[in-house]
Amino acid sequence: MLSIEYIKNFAEIHANIVYLLIALGVIVEGEIMVIIAGIFAHLGSINIYFAFLATILGGGVKSVVGYSIGYYLQKHHSRNSFLIRTERRVNYFLPHFLKKPFISIFLSRFLIFGIYWFALVYAGYKKIKLKTFIKAEAFSLVSWAIAMLSIGFFFSLTALSISRDVRKFFGIILVFFIIFFILEKIIAFIIELFESDEIEK
User: Fold this and answer.
1) Cβ(136)–Cβ(110) under 8 Å?
2) Is pLDDT at 86 greater than 90 in this prediction?
3) What is the DSSP letter of 72?
């Protein structure tokens, strides 16, 4: 019979694979995978420190790949239609990107769902100084990893305190995810309005 204990033990047995999936998940997507890692860390299936290291590894690879793609495209395909769309998208959400690259790169990971890959590519395309890029990425990645793992830990802790039934547990987790993404959209909308007002001024 499927239970929380069964899922916990299954993940624990395959912990090495879970760490690999966390790193790969961060490269492809990010938030969902790290929050799930936080959930399993709370359940005791995986080590929170190894989960953190896997997140940092995946995030670091993603940063290097994104910047490198932008740098390459600028050098060889500067009139690429993808780059034109990327530039418009980044300028729309982060109009001060070139003036304040550190804060823009930092915020792109946290506050605007779906913009982060574009920000990485754009940073490489605009040849943002590596020192600034690395510093912004390091600060944002560590902060983001701690935040997402903590959210997953909180989701699991709260869901378990409400019910230990596996269906209710995952139902509560799903509700938390929905609330999380709605809040993220609201924050992105507020930032967009704020940036629009700044541009008008």
Assistant:
1) no
2) no
3) H
